[in-house]
Amino acid sequence: MWELIDVIIRLLLSPPVFAPLIYPGLVTVLIILVSLIWLGRKIAAKVQLRYGPYYIAKRLGGAPQLIADAIRFMFQEVIVPRTADKIPYLLAPALAMTLGLVPVVFIPVAPGFAGIVTSYSLPLALALSSLLPITVILMAWSANNKFTIQGGVREAFMVIAYEIPLFVAALSMGLAYGTLSLEEIVEKQVLVPGAVLNPLAAFVFYVSMLMSAGKLPFDIVEGEQEIVAGPFTEYSGILYGLVMGASYAQLYVLSMIFTEVFLAGWHPFIGSLGALYLPLGGLALFVKAYLVLAFSVFLRSVYGRYRLDYALRIGWERLFPLSVLALFLSLGLRVVGVV
Amino acid sequence: MSWRDEKLVVDWRKVAKAPGGEEIYELFIGPQHPASGHMRFIVRLEGDIIVDVEPDIGYVHRTMEKLAEGREYIKNIPLFERATIIDSNNITLGYVRALEKLLDVEPPPRARYLRTILSEINRIQSHLYGIGIAGIMLNHSTVFMWAFGDREIWMQLAEELTGARLTHTYSIPGGVRRDLPDGFEERFEKAARYMLRRLEDYGKIFLYNPMIRSRYEGVGVLKKHEAERLGAVGPNLRASGVRYDARLLGDYGAYSELEFEVPVQEEGDSFARMVQRVEEIKVSIEIIRQALKKMPDGPILAEKYLKLLPPKLRERVLKTGRVKFPAIFANLRPPPGETVARVEMARGEVFYHIVSDGSPKPYRVRIVTPSFRNLVLLRLLPREHRFMDLLAIYGSLDYFPPESDR
């Protein structure tokens, strides 16, 4: 009997199961989702001289509000428009959430601890996360509504504007460190974090990341004031919950990658906790990634929304040249031999 | 100049492609839409460029002009203030002025000053409302919350003065309803200092934020001659460089006795319109400050009506500063005739035309509200802009559907 439990625990704690399911996978994403939305609302409320979520458990500052919201989403009627293309309409949100989550298997959370250990984890994680926009366009098209199609077209425009700078910025760090494995990249930042080494790449990556996750000032795809909710206009209930969750999951994945590539990942590694169980030692990674996330949601109380063509111009005329410049900077660092 | 030139006329060759055509994308925005307000835009897009915007109004039409024909004169004041509830003293003041001309009665000086103070308080809070709404149309929630929060201060001042937060029903024929409460000056000074400080904050986070400027600058330019030709009014007109303001005519309130400069912008784009509102708030604060300083003593209701009150009641009215309506107010019978009056509201000039046939109810009341006159801009300005500019322009015009629909 005890042996069986022991086996189950071992199985659960083994990287291929623990990573996708618990940390940095599903459970963590759910916790982030619930806590981050609450935190974002609280921060915005603080800036805007309001209370924010308040009445559910006043002593906790309304923290369970998001759980209540999630329950509401669960039991709300899912409306499928008569004119919608039903199968893609119903499948796309699930696909979006899946694709939002899948990249976590490549993200190491401690030395040697990842769902799938590979020496190409950086491009693989990025490539998987860049599949998400396809599902957004699928949603837009299958809902068969004028507003959703507008949103889908906006997404299609935006994707190219941010994906290229994002990839070039990330790969320029790969060039600087001479490796495409996230784990090795983190290990090379013990002394100097990547953001100090190549601030240009960090900046480009961060802005592209905001564009990618559709956070302000780039929430153009959702564009509430113009196109109601963009591609997600027709969704309700748990389907909308999934769609919203997917964009947060993507932001989470990208900020994990950002932390590992530019903010020295799990360093300082806490050895004593790491000896107990390896991912515990990488606590710093979670804390840093969470701060990056919190900053990203804070931006909504400072900015409005950029115009579509202006955002595209930012992507093509500013971020893309900057990312190429970052590439040359990395090349220079490599030639000089700093890294 | 005729209406039928370059931009205003729809290029029907383009629009005619719409039904079944592939080039024009037609969007029906509103009336159930996060940002449309109580109206509908029929937007025709060619790619991302707006070919045509058709503002479809009338969703909050309440037949106010017709209702007014069935009520006694005095009862129309609370009716009309519901047209623009956030600017209620200004919109009723026009009616009261027209009525006073019909009845041949002038308000005493103190009442004129009090009307001016409430009008400017209304203007400030209405502009704050406009700035907030314009902010949320660019999804800038912070300025939305701030402006609406700071509006509360002015509503409280108005409440102290009149007893009501929004529906003041303050100006009545021949005067005002209540005298200035004690300590109003100090509380106003506090509010004014706070507001001026806050306007700086708004500038930092919203108006002069480079991100917001990129949305407003050069968008929806209303040229001076076009503004004049189309009959735009209020801040939208003044932001295009035309110095016109019904307050300058000086036939109502205490404006002719106060010194103030009406701000004017030259550019005429959305940014200028937003700056114009901020500048007007500052001027309004200055006007209230002067009015409080220069306010004469005396009764707040015309002698003609005061002496109709029973002596005991009259004494009490003079002592407490709270007007009891004389019985004649229930049945005011202006002599047959017509009058007009114009008053500068926060959104521009409101025009009243009253026709009396000698009965206790008006024969006809015509109201031309500023939002209705600015409506044509919603059609003209977004053309040839990007789709997302529609909301920047809509916000900067501070269009208020209930006011327009009446």
What does it look like?
The complex is a heterodimer of chains A (339) and B (406). Chain A is mainly α. Chain A has 17 helices and no strands. In chain A, helix 4 packs across helix 13. The radius of gyration of chain A is 20 Å and the shape is globular. Chain B has 406 residues and is mainly α. Chain B folds into two domains: 12-56, no CATH class; 64-405, Cytochrome-c3 Hydrogenase, chain B. Helices cover 47% and strands 12% of the residues of chain B. Chain B is globular and about 75 Å long. Mean pLDDT of chain B is 87; it is low at 1-5. Classes of the chains: A mainly alpha (339), B mainly alpha (406). At the A-B interface, helix 8, helix 12 and helix 17 of A face strand 1, helix 5, helix 6, helix 8 and helix 16 of B.
Write the layout of secondary structure elements.
The complex is a heterodimer of chains A (339) and B (406).
Chain A lengths: L1 H12 L1 H7 L4 H22 L17 H11 L10 H16 L19 H9 L2 H12 L2 H32 L4 H6 L6 H4 L1 H15 L10 H4 L9 H26 L8 H6 L1 H4 L1 H16 L9 H29 L3
Chain B lengths: L11 H4 L9 E5 L10 E7 L2 E8 L7 H6 L6 H5 L7 H16 L5 H29 L3 H22 L8 E2 L2 E2 L7 H24 L2 H7 L7 H7 L4 H4 L7 H4 L20 H25 L8 H4 L4 H10 L16 E9 L2 E9 L7 E5 L1 H11 L8 H9 L3 H5 L1
Antiparallel strand pairs in B: 1-2, 2-3, 4-5, 6-7, 7-8
